[in-house]
Amino acid sequence: MKHETLKTTGAPSLEELRATPAFPTREDFLRGPIAVIECVEEIPCNPCETACPKGAIKVGQPITNLPIMDFRLCTGCGRCIAACPGLAIYIKDYTYSEDEALITFPFEYLPLPQKNENVTLVNRMGEAICQGKVKTVINAKINDCTTLISVIFPKVYFDDVVSIQRLPVEEICH
Ligand code: SF4
Ligand code: SF4
């Protein structure tokens, strides 16, 4: 069955993602920071294509095509992240350091983490898998209220990390 894991668990498996035309290979990740697009449903949508200043993302016609990526053009600038209404794009940098990787992802919850804060990173199922440190928290006007969080984490969890665990709501009131 197509996208079996997505349909039965709510999140695609790595195998399902690797079968999509925009998912990076190991070699692509060795280039440095690049966009990772986890878009597996053929829906009418293409703001990622128009947001990329380098022309690295192509949806084309029909608009229900899955996006495809030209990683030779991607600079990891992150402009496509907030443009995606499905929050399906993040940037990963496998080359950040010898033992650490960097992920930059959209975060639309409060409270926001702070720079240098230790946070718990999660996999596609929302399960906690490791600890990391917040490098930046960016609220740029161009991103239309979507905050971009960058977190440094152990490289050994590279394939599975996609976001961070939400912080306790009580912290908003203090
Ligand atoms: S990270 Fe920048 S260059 Fe790469 S696909 Fe997104 S918008 Fe284009
Ligand atoms: S904007 Fe997001 S949901 Fe829409 S096609 Fe691009 S990656 Fe998929």
Automatic annotation (TrEMBL):
| InterPro entries noted in UniProt | 4Fe4S_Fe-S-bd (IPR017896), 4Fe4S_Fe_S_CS (IPR017900)
Residues of the 4Fe-4S ferredoxin-type domain? 65-94
Where does the signal peptide begin and end? none
Annotated GO molecular function terms are: iron-sulfur cluster binding; metal ion binding
Instruction: Quote the Pfam families the UniProt record gives.
Output: Fer4_7 (PF12838)
Enumerate the UniProt keywords alphabetically. Iron, Iron-sulfur, Metal-binding
> Which segments cross the bilayer?
none
PROSITE patterns referenced in this protein's UniProt entry, alphabetically: 4FE4S_FER_1, 4FE4S_FER_2
* This protein's name: 4Fe-4S ferredoxin-type domain-containing protein
Q: Which organism is it from?
A: Vecturithrix granuli
What lineage is this protein's organism placed in?
Answer: Bacteria, Candidatus Moduliflexota, Candidatus Vecturitrichia, Candidatus Vecturitrichales, Candidatus Vecturitrichaceae
